[in-house]
Structure formats: C-alpha cells, structure tokens
Amino acid sequence: MKTRDRILHTSLRLFNEMGEPSVTTLFIADELDISPGNLYYHFKSKTDILEELFQQFEECMYSILIVPESEMDIEDLWFYLHLIFENIAKFQFLYKDLVTIMAKYPQFEKRFQKILNTKRKASISVLENARKNERLHASTDEIEALTEQIILTTTFWLSYSSVREGQVADDALARGVYQVMSVVAPFLEPERRAMINGLKDAYL
Amino acid sequence: MKTRDRILHTSLRLFNEMGEPSVTTLFIADELDISPGNLYYHFKSKTDILEELFQQFEECMYSILIVPESEMDIEDLWFYLHLIFENIAKFQFLYKDLVTIMAKYPQFEKRFQKILNTKRKASISVLENARKNERLHASTDEIEALTEQIILTTTFWLSYSSVREGQVADDALARGVYQVMSVVAPFLEPERRAMINGLKDAYL
DNA sequence: GTCTATATTTAGATAGAC
DNA sequence: GTCTATCTAAATATAGAC
Questions:
Q1: Which of A41, A79, A86, B95 is found 20 to 30 A from B202 (Cα to Cα)?
Q2: Nearest-CA residue to the C1' of D2?
Q3: Domains of chain B, earliest start first
Q4: pTM of structure
C-alpha cells in the first residue's frame, strides 16, 4: 500500500474514532510512523485530505442513491437502509461533527445539501410509489413529514448514539435501521406493521 | 449591566450565531470593546464561560422538565414542546456542535446525558399515561421507539435546519414542534390526528 | 476593573539535506 | 520519497502599569 493511500486510510480511521477536530496532521503522521514533512509531501494541507475523503463519500453515496425508487418493497427498504447506514458509518466523522465541519470547510456545505436533497427525493418517490400500490396509507403532508423524519434520523442517528452512550455501540447501525422502520410502520397495513415490530426481537 | 454579565450575554449570542468553535476569547472581548485582559479578569478561562452558560442551560431545562408528566393532554403537549424548543434555541450553540463540544469539554458529557435520560423518562411517562386514557394506541415497543424518535428530533432539529438551509430559519422552532407532533399523530384517534395535520396550515 | 504588552502553546505548514 | 529542523499564525492566557 502506497504512503498516499495509507495516509487517507489512517486519516479516515482516526477521524471516525476521535472526531476530525481532535486529529492533527502531526498525530496522523505519528500513527503512520512517518514524518510530518512526508505527510505534507503527499498532501499540501489537511483540507486536501478532507477533500479527497469527502469525494470518496460523495461517490459511495451517489452510487447507492441512483439505484432504486420505483420497484422497492418494504423488505427492500430494510435492506436499502442498511446500505445507507453502512455508508454513513464508514464516513461517520462527517456526520458526528457535521455542523462543525461544514463551518470549518464551507466548500462541503452545498455538496452535502445536495446529497440530502437527493435522499429526500428518493424517499418521497419510494413512499409515493408505495401509496399508489396501496401498501402505504398516508396523505401528501404525512409523506412529507415522514420523509423529513427519515432523513433527520439517518443523518443524526450516529450522533445521537454517540452522545447518548459516549461512543457508537456495535449495534448502533441495526438500531438505526429499526428506528427508521418504526417511523414508517404506523402507515403500513397491520400485517406489515407487525412484521417490522417483529424485527426488533429478530435483530436487536 | 456589569461587565461579567455582559461577557456571558455576548458569549452566548456569539456562540449561537457563529458556533462555539469559531468564537475566540479575543473576538468576544473585541465585540464588547473591552481588552482580553479584562475578560480574563472576570473569567480565568474560556472553559469557565462555557461552564457558567452550561449551568444556566441545565437550570432552565430542569425547571421545565419537573413540571408535567401525569395530567398532560395532546394540546398541552403542543404547548410543552414549544417550551422545550425555546430553551433549546436559547442555547442552540450546545446542540448545533453537540458532539464537538462534548469531546472538547468532557465535563459536560454525563450532565447532558442525564438531561436526555430525564427527557426520555418524561416522554415515556406522558405516552404511557395517554395510553391508559385510551387517547394513544401503541404497544410498549412502539412507545419506546416513539420516545427515541421524539428525543432525537428535539435534540437535532436545529442542527438539521442549519445544515439543510445554511442557517436556522425564523420558523425553525414551529417546524420542529410540528415535526415532533407528526411523529406522535399516527398513534392517535382519527380526530386528534386530523387536528395535528391541520396545525400545519395554521402555523406554517 | 481595565488597559497594554507579552508569554505560552499548539496546529498547520515549509525548507533543505539525504 | 522521506527526514529533521524550523517557521508562521492563531488562540489561550498572564504580568504589571494605571
């Protein structure tokens, strides 16, 4: 593995473990047993490391978001949410210090907003489709509020876990998926609603 | 107004407006047209300013949280959520950079967790009570998930607004209250549910 | 209580030898 | 590509005069 890639890899791990504001360039270099000068040979600034990681994040997220929309069932939703949450967990440093990072690196703000908007559109599309197929019973206002709730929960679930328990627990992802499903459940037919409530015993 | 109080007052305003990480002691002093030395005469460190503001926050929050529990109706909930959200907005700097601040000032972590736990207990108590009175139709698991959802939403609604729109809009509070109500609505009787959905037209 | 001037610390970044 | 040594800038904090 080349030094440049090791820097990216270790930076991501340290950011996720300790929070981006606590990780200095010197610390990254120490962790890799290389000199600060060497690190700055490969990246001209800390911002450049962030920029490359943010690009990776964007690519991962969009590759997930282009897939679905029309032919998604509730079982697919469960699986799909896992994909989203895994990607969020992979770049959790972005989410945990979201407001701080957006203030410190304003070049990311519009791009993150665009991802949120894409997610909102995907969510509304899936829910409207489920309504057409009579699997979801909700008004347009309810679908809008439900979408806000889904995006808010996916975005801040790891922050919430981390503040609540002082760290992100092993089952935080599964709990996040369950939590989002529990928001959708009340609008489903009784049998599907029971299925979601049953997921708690099966997975948590 | 004494200098010490002016420092607290202006610090809170600047933290809320710009985010705690962006506000230096020098900037606070400049804003007040006093010298840094004067600021450090009144507070021996930036942490001391934070400590006093956090205490104010705790007192405000607990004074709201001891009140209710048993005899609260859905109309009261609407009013009560406004109180909570107003207090959160008053100390929004804490919420917007929550994870960052908890990492930088670890002495606040347990105390914030205690507030979250108190809120959770209050929420469960109110919901269980509503179930007893047959105004809420939900299982114990559903009440638990609903409570998580309510706490998550109140805690991160301002962060979400701020990231989504680049700032906290004027109607962010009202939208937050509506959003929480919309999470509870599906578990209510049709007439109360319709009332909550009607709140959108009335207030937003 | 308040000021000016300065010290301390630390993170980010560069220069130049190897 | 990598190292050592060093620089700069910014933020926190202190000393001592008034």
A1: B95
A2: A38
A3: 1-44 (1.10.10.60), 46-203 (1.10.357.10)
A4: 0.97
Q: Which tokens go with B109?
A: 């972590």
Q: Name the token pair of B86.
A: 């107003």
Rounded CA gap, B67 and B77, in Å? Answer: 12
CA atoms of B100 and B94, how far apart (whole Å): 9
* CA distance from start to end of chain B: 37
Map residue A108 onto helix, strand or coil. Answer: helix
> Contact at 8 Å (CB) between A85 and A176?
yes
Inter-chain contact B179–A145, Cβ cutoff 8 Å? Answer: yes
Residues 33-72 of B with CB under 7 A from strand D: 36-37, 40-41, 44-47
Nearby residues of B195 by Cβ (< 8 Å), 6 or more positions away = B74
The reported pLDDT for the residue numbered B105 is 98
B 69-98 residues, CB < 7 A, strand C: none
Task: Indicate the Cα dihedral angle A141, A144, A149, A152, nearest 10°.
Answer: -140
